[in-house]
Amino acid sequence: MINALYQELARKISARQNCVVSNNEEWEIKHGEDIRQLVELLPHGSGIDGETALDYGKSNRDRIVLLAEFHTMDENGFYGRWIAYRVTVTPSLVCGIDLTITGNFGKHSDIKDYLYETYFWGFRQPIEWDTEKAGYRKVLDTI
Fold first, then answer.
1. pLDDT at 75
2. Which of 40, 115, 118, 120 is the most exposed place for a label (fewest CB within 10 A)?
3. Dihedral of CA 50/56/60/61: which sign?
């Protein structure tokens, strides 16, 4: 079954939380591994070079919160400072998802527009379970 990445991620977050409540450690670990695989399918590179991690404490079936880092570049093409930021995904009746990106961007506030567009399409990318490799993969069709 093909789903948008945000849909499958929300399902796995909810399933993992149910396992935490029911004290089912085996399936909690399995769902956690699936979550890690899904987060790895999100955009990486072109400045989104640091670690990207799900904030388990703030995420649930209706809110996905990622903690990530952006590596800036100066006008000479040298790497500058790291910017830690948060991406929050919530449901939208119009677009499927709404995104909020927060962080201390300072003079690099224009990066937020780039991050918004990159994550918007990244979360909406179609994915499916690949039984041969026992993991998720991107699908070339669009949703």
1. 84
2. 40
3. positive
Give the torsion through C-alpha atoms of 3, 101, 46, 119, to 10 deg.
10
Each as own residue / partner, the long-range contacts of residues 61-66 (CB below 8 Å, 24 or more positions apart, any chain) are 61/10, 61/11, 61/13, 61/14, 61/17, 62/10, 62/90, 62/91, 63/88, 63/89, 63/90, 64/6, 64/9, 64/10, 64/13, 64/88, 64/89, 64/123, 65/89, 66/39, 66/42
Query: Could you tell me how far CA 49 lies from the centroid of its own chain?
Result: 14
pLDDT tens digit sequence for 2-54: 899 999 999 999 999 999 999 999 999 999 999 999 999 999 999 999 899 99
Strand order in the sheet with 126-130: 3-4, 126-130, 135-138
Q: What percent of the chain has pLDDT over 90?
A: 81
